[in-house]
Specification:
Blueprint (H helix, E strand, L loop, with lengths): L4 E10 L3 H9 L4 H4 L3 E8 L2 E6 L7 E11 L4 E8 L1 E12 L2 E12 L2 H35 L21
Antiparallel strand pairs: 1-7, 2-3, 3-4, 4-5, 5-6, 6-7
Amino acid sequence: MDRNFYRFHSTWPVDAAPRDTYDALERFEDYSAWWPEVRSFRMLGPESCEVTCRSLLPYDLTFVLRPARRDPEAMVLEASMAGDLEGFSRWTITATPSGAQLTFDEEVTVRKRSLRLLAPVARPLYRANHSIMMRHARAGLSSYLARAPRPRPGFFRFRRVDVATGPP
């Protein structure tokens, strides 16, 4: 087994409409407003951004995100990741009688050299660090959704561009 491969799965209820939850998750540029571990966000182009995350352990993870799947009907958002982490992360929203159920799945290989070298002894710490990050995401997103106005289009929204006339 590759000590640098990680599979994470988190599920929690959200007291918000599924569509509002989807719209909030689609606006990646707003993640730092509700997820404290998202330290920086920088657009690289119309469909890619660079993100830096840091939880309790003293290391940053910087990676590029690109939309891989955007399916508002199935309520799935997925992004590919390249950089210190390589793989994907996916949000899946399911309607419930009281709002929505949110599932976060991530499969990544750590590429950051210092973390790869420490993996044989630090792997349990990395997993605990991720768990803390997800607890903060749950609390932050719930608070954000409770106070957020109707969302506007964001990072994961793909725009149609007419080749003859260009962007709208």
